[in-house]
Design goal:
The chain is an alpha+beta fold. It folds into 2 domains: 228 residues, P-loop containing nucleotide triphosphate hydrolases (Rossmann fold); 120 residues, RNA polymerase II/Efflux pump adaptor protein, barrel-sandwich hybrid domain (OB fold (Dihydrolipoamide Acetyltransferase, E2P)), CATH 2.40.50.100. Helices cover 23% and strands 31% of the residues. The chain has 9 helices and 20 strands. Helix 2 packs across helix 3. The longest helix has 18 residues. The protein starts with 29 loop residues before the first strand and ends in a 5-residue tail after the last strand. One of its GO terms (molecular function) is ATP binding.
């Protein structure tokens, strides 16, 4: 017998990595608190000293590559895999060693986990029947939930008679049936096709806002995290690399891993010149302020969409001197923009990738093989420590 979806109420903490200070949240009541949490499987450390605070009503995404520990952390919150050491607080109560059935959460898995031999109504009612509610109350709650997820006429059907997207909505309805304090989503959209995923992620976010339920979702899909989350927790090799809003994670990455993992990023080996400028070949470029000493070997990074195109012969003014002449070697049409491959002899073998709007390409009459001037804006050019050799 599969256990009914449980319910758990959680509190917010801060996230730290080694000496990194715990990350606090600006507003709202602390709801889920994870403190100095470790998880080992034999000799393998899946989670290493994780601390994180989550506020009531927040939508949090755990994002990272496969094997980074995001699902392990979700399962530790749920009590499905108890931590090796560390603490989990739910609504101010230490639940670190409680079984899942004694925690206040609802959970939705990638595989839906609906009972194939039960109707949709009975699937949703399953957890409610174990709470001592009367039949009339359960029937009313099931009807309310079916209406909430937009499937009011599907109650008498069986899971196999519904599409994947409809089944996931029913799994969501079942998870929130008991009005849990916390909703856990373990890659709930990854088994769906692209169009259904896009549609359903908006529905889930809208439902979460409507209910005000604190939600933690695991995903490896960057777009999913950026569009759905209030804050994103970027994980790698069992640690938290950065926590922030989607805008902060994308525009202000804490390190090269985050910069490289989220979106596209140009990376050019560089050295720190006088005044903190970055030497790219024989040219010094102003950049965002950093703490690297002069002469340090670093990685200069800039996103393709931040590169500004100018026609050949453009004369920069004193306030935008971060310009360089390049050869436009190749252009790829990607619908809403052109991805352009740029080369400059001074960069050695490094290639710049720039995304130019259709209007800019048309206005400047850009074409493969033509020279042009590009600007690397000072406030978008970043310096990161070089990655450690494995």
């Amino acid at each position: 017998m599969v256990a009914a979806p449980t319910v758990c109420r959680l509190v917010p903490t801060k996230l730290t990595k080694g000496p990194r200070p715990v990350t606090h949240i600006a507003s709202g009541d602390l709801y889920l608190s994870i403190s100095n949490l470790w998880k080992a499987f034999g000799e393998f450390l899946a989670l290493k000293d994780i601390s994180l605070d989550i506020n009531e009503g927040e939508f949090i995404c755990f994002l990272g590559p496969s094997g980074c520990g995001k699902t392990t952390l979700l399962r530790a919150i749920a009590g499905l895999d108890l931590q090796t050491k560390g603490a989990v607080l739910q609504d101010g109560k230490d639940v670190s060693n409680l079984p899942p059935s004694e925690r206040d959460f609802g959970i939705v898995f990638q595989s839906y986990a609906l009972f194939p031999n039960l109707t949709i109504e009975k699937n949703i009612a399953f957890g409610l029947e174990n709470t001592g509610r009367g039949k009339a109350e359960i029937t009313a709650r099931v009807s309310e939930l079916l209406e909430l997820v937009g499937l009011p006429d599907q109650g008498s059907k069986y899971p196999a008679q519904l599409s994947g997207g409809q089944q996931q909505r029913i799994a969501l309805a079942r998870a929130i049936a008991t009005k849990p304090g916390l909703l856990l989503l373990d890659e709930p959209l990854s088994a769906l096709d692209a169009k259904v995923r896009v549609h359903l992620r908006h529905e889930i976010k809208e439902l979460q806002r409507k209910l005000g339920v604190t939600t933690v979702m695991v995903t490896h899909d960057q777009e999913e995290a950026l569009t759905m989350a209030d804050r994103i927790v970027v994980m790698n090799q069992g640690v938290i690399e950065q926590v922030g809003s989607p805008t902060e994670i994308y525009r202000e990455p804490a390190n090269l891993f985050v910069a490289d993992f989220i979106g596209e990023m140009n990376q050019i080996t560089s050295a720190v010149a006088a005044n903190g400028d970055l030497s790219l070949g024989s040219t010094a470029f102003s950049c965002i302020a950093h703490d690297f000493a002069q002469g340090s070997q670093v990685v200069a990074a800039i996103r393709p969409e931040d590169i500004i195109p100018h026609e050949a012969g453009y004369q920069p003014g004193a306030d935008n001197s971060n310009c360089i002449e390049v050869q436009l070697e190749e252009m790829e049409f990607l619908g809403s923009f052109w991805r352009c491959h740029l080369r400059n002899e001074g960069f050695g073998n490094s290639e710049l990738i720039a995304d130019f709007s259709i209007n800019a390409v048309r206005r400047l009459e850009l074409a493969s093989g033509k020279p042009m001037i590009v600007e690397l804006p000072e406030d978008r050019l970043m310096a990161f420590a070089q990655p450690e050799a494995n």
